[in-house]
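Our preliminary data section would be incomplete without showing what the modeling component actually yields. Below, a chain of 287 amino acids is followed by its predicted structure, encoded as C-alpha cells that our downstream tools consume directly.
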Amino acid sequence: MVFRHVLSLSHPLRGYLRNIHANRSWYIPSRRTMAEYSVLMEKEGRIHVVEVVDEMVKHKGLGVINTATLLANSNIGDEVLVGQKYLTIMPARLPELISGMARRAQTISAKDAGFFITKLGIGGGDTVLEAGLGSGGLSLHLARVLGETGHLVTAEPRDEHASVGLTNLQRASKCFSGFPKHTHCEGMVEDVVLDEEFNAIILDMPVHSPAIAACAPKLVFGGRLACYAPTTSQLEACWKACEEAGLVVEWAGELMERQWGLTSKGGMRPVNGPFGHTAFLLVAQKR
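Predicted structure:
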C-alpha cells in the first residue's frame, strides 16, 4: 500500500511542496511562496546568500537585518552598509552560489564537477541521476548546465544532508535563468532509483557496488556512469563493479589542482597550501 500526503515544509525548505510516495519524495517549487535571494560580498571576498524578506532575520556573519529594507531600491554593483561592514550586491551566478552555499557534507569541487560534466557529455535536455546529494555542490553545477529542458534526479539517504542540499537547490532555482525539472528520492539509490532511462549517472557514496548494479541497467545505450571514490580500494571496487554490470571503463584516476599567485618582488610562484587532490574518479560507458 502506498500512502500519499502533501505538506508545506517550514524553513530551510521554505517554498517547497513535498509529495511523499512511500520512500520517494518530489520537491516542487511553489511560485507564490518561493523566496527571492540576493548575493552580498564583503571586501575580502566572503559571500553571503540572503533571502530577501520583509522581517528581521539573523544571518550568520551579518547579524539581525531586514533584507527587504536593506536592499530596497538597490541594484547589482551597489554597496550597502550592514553594521560596520560595506557589502557589494553581486549577481547571483554559479560561483557566488557555490561560495555562499549552506554546507554540511563535503562538496565535490568545481574541478571535479567540470570533469564529470565534460566526460559524461551532460547538457540541455539530458536526464541525470546524482546519488548522494550531500550539500548539493555538484547538483548546482548540474542544474546550471541542464537548464530548463533537463531533468535532475537526486538521491540521498540522510535527511540532515538532504535538507541542506535541497536548500541550495531552492536558492539556485530562483537565481538561474533556467532551472531543470528536479526529482528527489529519499533513501539509498539502489532502493529508490526511478524506473527511468538516464543519459548520465554520478555516484558519490561510501559503497558504490550495489548502486552500480542497480543503476547501470537504467543507462541509455552510450550513456555514462561516473564514480567519486575517496580511496584507491574503493576505486578498484568501482572498476570491478562496472565491468560486472557490463560497462566499459573509459578512464580512472585523479585530478590535481595547484594555484599560483604573484610574488612581492615580481614573478609567479605556487600559493602556499596543499596540492588539490580531492578524490579518485572513474568513468564507464554502456556499449
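Residues 1-34 have pLDDT under 50 and may be disordered. The two ends are 38 Å apart (CA to CA). Preliminary results of this kind motivate Aim 1 of the renewal.
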